[in-house]
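Section 3.1: Structural characterization of target chains.
Under the original work plan, the team committed to producing a structural model for every single-chain target entering the pipeline before any wet-lab resources were allocated. The record below documents one such target. The sequence was received from the expression subgroup and is listed exactly as submitted; it comprises 212 residues.
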Amino acid sequence: MTPTERYYEQLAKTTMKNLEKRQIQAHYCSNSAQAVTLASELIQPDSVVSFGGSMTLSETGMLDALRNRTDLTLLDRSKAGSEEEVCEIYHKALSSDYFFMSSNAISATGHLVNIDGTGNRLAALIYGPSNVIILAGMNKVTPTLEEAVSRVRHTASPINAVRLDRDTPCTLSGTCSDCLSPDCICAQTVITRRSNIPNRIKVILIGEQLGF
């Protein structure tokens, strides 16, 4: 085991302990394949499943695993033929049995920190789906809540703005300027400090660098 792998395992233990104090179910997998297997086992057959935009879900193979399942109904906006259909899927996702996403940052103290433009992903995290399953690489974990918020603003958001080819100050400077640009993807910031419904939110930490 490399020093990085050992570090990830120890940091994950601390983070999971603090997530569970906040009624958030927590798991650790050393790699993406294990995480996809675990997440797939959490889904009951004949369920309605949806997901938010996430590079992590693509990189791990989680989206492919969901799309290959024949025993569930997948609300997949990539299959939509119009903006109206996309909007309809956003709304239907709030009544799904399982909603998949990543988190822009997770503090070792057990907080989830997320920022969004449209807000559909955060709406589902907060309320609606019976289960929310979060896959996140250990690169998303920070020591404190303050550092998690900073990571979201100064790392995740600028990279995602570049990925989406947005015309924002951060795509040029690489750091957040708290802009109000028409192309801004930072409309809502949500800090989840506790799950009111025990174990509704399930976090799978992965011992890899995944997503932004």
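The longest strand covers residues 131-137.
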